[in-house]
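Model the whole thing, not chain by chain.
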Amino acid sequence: MRNLSRLVVIIFCALAAGPILWHLASSLKDAAEVTQIPPAFLPSRPTLENYFELFVRRPFLTYCLNSFIIASLSSLLCVAAASPAAWWLTRSGRRSRAAVSGMLLGLAFFPPIVFVFPLYELVRVLGLINHPWGLIVPYAALNLPLSIWLLTGYFRRIPIELEEAAEMDGLSPLQTFFTIALPLAAPALATATILAFVFSWNEYMLALTFLNADDARTVTVAVATLSGAFVYQIPWGLIAAGVIASSLPLIVLTIFFQEKIVAGLTAGSIQ
Amino acid sequence: MSKKVFWLMPSALLIGAVLLYPALRTFALSFYRVDFRTSFHSEFAGLHNFARLAVDSRFRSSLWTTILFTATTVSIEFVAGLVLALSVDTWARARGAIRTILLIPWTLPTAVIAVLWAWIFNDQYGILDSLLVRSGILAAPISWLGNPGAAFWALIIADAWKTTPFVFVILLAGLQAIPDDLYEAMEIDGGGSWAKFRLITWPFLARFIFVALVFRIIQAFSIFDLVYVMTGGGPGGTTETLSVYAYQTMMRYLDFSYGATLATATVMVLAVVAVALYWLLLGRNEELI
């Protein structure tokens, strides 16, 4: 039984890593080898040609920067808006709490297709097509229900006595929030920020719709359109390099913050 | 009252402008006609769009594809995630490293994953056909994305690859919340592994299973990125899901009102699914929530 479960784990790890490693290997092949039939597993003449093409001859660094700016600002905005709301929810009565969390949960389950066209109209009217803020604000809002949900669960574990003691010491609710609640909730704030960052970095539908200038694109849209630009020959080596380059920040993030991501994902079921 | 404004204002503004207003506007649009024939002016159309929906075979076909996709992918992920969680749970030492490797597919962008798998499924240069032919499972390479049945399964494989980690992580958290002394007590009572699973693990896990299933069913039903990038709904519209059809109608055919109607219909079907799930999974034991 124990050996069987180890075998299962090893197989799943291989399945998880295999496709990524295949692209890593392919991204290091030269143009002739990448279209060799049957395909080779490992590059026989490893080269950085594809990455050179991606970052030097194409504005891939700009795409990465766009994604980074949009994802970080939107996750910060999201958590900044979510934390006072979550704190208020934690301390408010049972009924208003149930009503607000019910509404949040309902909105979180709406398919994004419902929002896309009216948002497009709004973003266009505000002149934010091809502008980072046209995505930063929508992403912050889309991640808001999950962040509020996460933070409420964490704030609720802060003992009420602590707050009462703060009040006796003459702290206003605002001071209590900034000097006691927020520092105590630092781990949950980090979790919410990381998750919002990952979701914003990965978002595709709105980024595809609101950005049409090449240098405004996010990395997700850029990778998805790499193959569409070529009619006759699809540049597989370049695409593999794009897949790896756009995934690398997330792989690094997962390696460093695995526990935080897991904590965020499971918060909903443990509360 | 002014205090309340401070705490809730930022969130209320964001949710109102980005979620609530657009959702209501989409709903309202489905009772109007806004397309190139009306020169993009709104004309009230009553239930015209819904009548069109009722006779639209492309809508029926994409609804069926969406239902089939959701049922298949969520079943596979659930079984794979459960087997994986039970297996990892017995392997205490390397859990952190294993969880990291298994989690990586979930953190990658779906649109990028679509590109990644499209190449693996390529019939000329892709690794999958090459492996299948070399190992003798296939006589000749098949064009996964050019063949209706195979394209559907290609989407399922790519989606299950990305989202099994999510189910796994939630179920593993559930397994780790079960106190060990329950199992010890069962051992003293002479219960075997099956009895342990049925009487302790399963009932404890029920709430986690519910959360994982609800999240996954709703996300799978809304699927857009994967299909749009990997198959574009093809070949011949056979893998087109509701979100993809709605998006094409709005952004490509510029038929905003009918696109909005399709989006509204998606929400309505989803609401029915959510209520059904609630009754099915929680109807009998309400203490779960």
